[in-house]
Amino acid sequence: MDFKKQETAVEPIDRWFMREVYVWRKGGSIFWYITCLPILTMVYLLAANINIFHPIQTLIDVFMTIFSLSMVIRLVFILIINGALIWYSSAFFTVTPEIGETRFSNLLRLMKVSRLCHLGVYCMSSVILAWCCSCFIGGKYSSLTQSPDGLVVNLNEPHLFLILYGLFLGISFFSQFYLDLNNYLEFPLIQRDKFFQVRSITGCLLICCIKNTLKQVKYFYLLYYLFGSVPRSWVMYNLNLQFSVDDVPLDSIYGLFNCGLLWEVVIFGVYINYTWSLANILFKIYQTEHYSFPVEDVFDSQYQRCLYDALNCNIQPLIKYLGYLDLYSLAKFSAERRKRIFCLSQPGGHPHTWNRISSVCLAEINDLCGQIEAANWKTYASVPIKQANVIDRSYTQGEGMNDSQYYHSTTLHSVNYNNNFNNITLNNTNPVSENNVEPAPKKTFTIWREKFSALVSKKPGIGYFMGELPDSKSRVLFASSQIQIWAVEALSDLVTASFEEDKFGIVQRSLPTILSSLLNLQENVEKHFKLVTPVTRRNNKDIFTVNDATLRYQLQSVLKSSIYRIINKFGKHIRDLPMDPDCSKKLRPFLEYKE
C-alpha cells in the first residue's frame, strides 16, 4: 500500500516544471512589466500634453493629473488589462519558429480558432487602452460626443479616430506577433543577467518602436482616408449623433493635416508598441534563462526530474530546450557536474548516466541527419534529366560524380545513387527502387491537384500568394536545429574532457559512434548547402528581427569545429579507432586539415 502511494505521488517533469519553474518565471516577467508600466505611462502623459510654449504650466498640469483620483483608477485599470493580456499571450510563445512556405500559408496560420481569440483579446485591449489614454489627454479627445449649445449632440471625430487607431494597433501587433515571429523564444548566444539584457535593449527598442509606429500611422491614415466615412456614419446612425458643420471631416486631405492629432496618434502608438514589446522581451528573457537540472536522481524528490528526463521531454518543448542548454553549459564550463556523467553506477558499475545522455543526443543528431538526407534526395529527384546522345565518360567507367556533374550530365538511362551519393551505376531498365519494386503510381486526384496548383501559381495575382517563398523549405528543415547545435557541442566537449577526466574510459567506447554521427550530419549539411540556392538578405539591425535563418549556418560551423576539437585532443589516436571504411574516408580530410 505504501509503495502504491509513493508511485502515484511521482509527478512527471513537464507538470512539475510548469508548476514550479514556468509559472514563477512568467509571474516574474509580468511583475517587472507591471512595475515599469506606471513610469512609462507618466512619460507618455507628459509627452501627450506637452506644450513647448508653456513648459512649466505643462509640468504643473501633468503633476496634478498624476495624483488625481481618476488617474489612479485608470492607471490601475491599465495595469490589469496589460497584465491579463501578457498572461494570456504567454501560451502562444514557442521555441520552434513556425515558418510558412507560401504567403497564403502564412495567412492561414492566423485563421486558427485559438489565434482568432487571441486577435479579439488584442483588439479589445487596444481599444480600452486607447479610451483610457484619450481620457488622459483630455480636451477634445476625452469624449465621443460634444454639445456646444447643449441642445444638439455632435460626434467628436478626433476621439473616434484615436479609438479606431487603437483597434488598428491591436490588429497590427497581432499580425507581427505571428508573421514576424515575435512569439519565437530565441535563446541568446551568451547568457547574461536579466538586468543587463534589459538595459542593453531599451534604447534600441525605443528607436524600433518609433519606426514601426510611423509605418503603422502611414497605413492607417491611408485606410481612414479611403474608408473613414464608413465607421463614422455607422456610429452616427446607431447613436443618433450629428456632425457639426464647423468641424472638418478627418477623411479629407485637409482634415488629416491636423498636426495636433498626428502627434497624439504617434505618441500613443509608440506607447503601446513599446510597452507591449517590452512585455514580450521580458517574458523571453525570463523563459530562456539557464536552468540547472540534476544530473542524477539521487533523491526521491528528483525522480523523473533529472537532466535525462529534460532531454527526453517531448510534451513541453521548452523543457527539452532548457535541458540541452544545461547540457551544453555543463559540458563546457562545469567540471564538477561532468564527473557525475563519467562515473559508474553502484552497484553494478555501469555507465548508465553517460549511456542515456549520449543515446538521446545521438538520436536527435541522427534524426536531423535523416531529414536533411531525405530533403537532399527530394531536391535531386526534382532536377529534370534531359536527353542526350552521348554518355559521359565518367558514367561508363563507373567513376564518382560530384554535385556539379550531376546537373550537367544528361542521359536516357536511370541513375541509381547509394546513400553517400558517390557511386553511380547505369541501368537500361526502368527506374526501380533498391528492392526492385516499382514505385506505386500516383493517384489521379494527386496528379490533378499538382497540375491545378502549378497552374494557379503561374497567375500573377494568385501566384504572389501561392508561390513558394525563397529559402522557405530550408528554413523549415532547420527550424528546430538549435537542439542539434547544443547536442553536437555538448558531445564534443564531453569527449574532449573525457581525455583527462574519464577514469574508466566509458566515453572512448562511444567515440566511433559519435564521430560517425557527426560526420554523416556534416556531410549531409554540406550537400544541402550545395543544392540550395543561397538567398541574400538585407542586413536588418531591427531588434524584432528573428535570426532563425542563421541556425543552419551555426550548425555548419559547429559541426566542423566540434570534429576538429575532437581530432586536436586525441591526435593520432583517432586512427586506431574501429570505424567503418566510409567514416574513415570522411574523416581523412579533417585529419589532414583540408576540410
Automatic annotation (TrEMBL):
<dbReference type="Pfam" id="PF09531">
    <property type="entry name" value="Ndc1_Nup"/>
</dbReference>
<keyword id="KW-1133">Transmembrane helix</keyword>
<feature type="transmembrane region" description="Helical">
    <location>
        <begin position="253"/>
        <end position="274"/>
    </location>
</feature>
<protein>
    <recommendedName>
        <fullName>Nucleoporin NDC1</fullName>
    </recommendedName>
</protein>
<feature type="transmembrane region" description="Helical">
    <location>
        <begin position="160"/>
        <end position="179"/>
    </location>
</feature>
<feature type="transmembrane region" description="Helical">
    <location>
        <begin position="62"/>
        <end position="88"/>
    </location>
</feature>
<dbReference type="GO" id="GO:0070762">
    <property type="term" value="C:nuclear pore transmembrane ring"/>
</dbReference>
<dbReference type="InterPro" id="IPR019049">
    <property type="entry name" value="Nucleoporin_prot_Ndc1/Nup"/>
</dbReference>
<keyword id="KW-0539">Nucleus</keyword>
<keyword id="KW-0811">Translocation</keyword>
<keyword id="KW-0509">mRNA transport</keyword>
<feature type="transmembrane region" description="Helical">
    <location>
        <begin position="221"/>
        <end position="241"/>
    </location>
</feature>
<keyword id="KW-0812">Transmembrane</keyword>
<dbReference type="GO" id="GO:0006999">
    <property type="term" value="P:nuclear pore organization"/>
</dbReference>
<dbReference type="GO" id="GO:0031965">
    <property type="term" value="C:nuclear membrane"/>
</dbReference>
<feature type="transmembrane region" description="Helical">
    <location>
        <begin position="30"/>
        <end position="50"/>
    </location>
</feature>
<comment type="similarity">
    <text>Belongs to the NDC1 family.</text>
</comment>
<keyword id="KW-0472">Membrane</keyword>
<keyword id="KW-0653">Protein transport</keyword>
<keyword id="KW-0906">Nuclear pore complex</keyword>
<dbReference type="GO" id="GO:0051028">
    <property type="term" value="P:mRNA transport"/>
</dbReference>
<feature type="transmembrane region" description="Helical">
    <location>
        <begin position="119"/>
        <end position="139"/>
    </location>
</feature>
<keyword id="KW-0813">Transport</keyword>
<dbReference type="GO" id="GO:0015031">
    <property type="term" value="P:protein transport"/>
</dbReference>
<dbReference type="GO" id="GO:0030674">
    <property type="term" value="F:protein-macromolecule adaptor activity"/>
</dbReference>
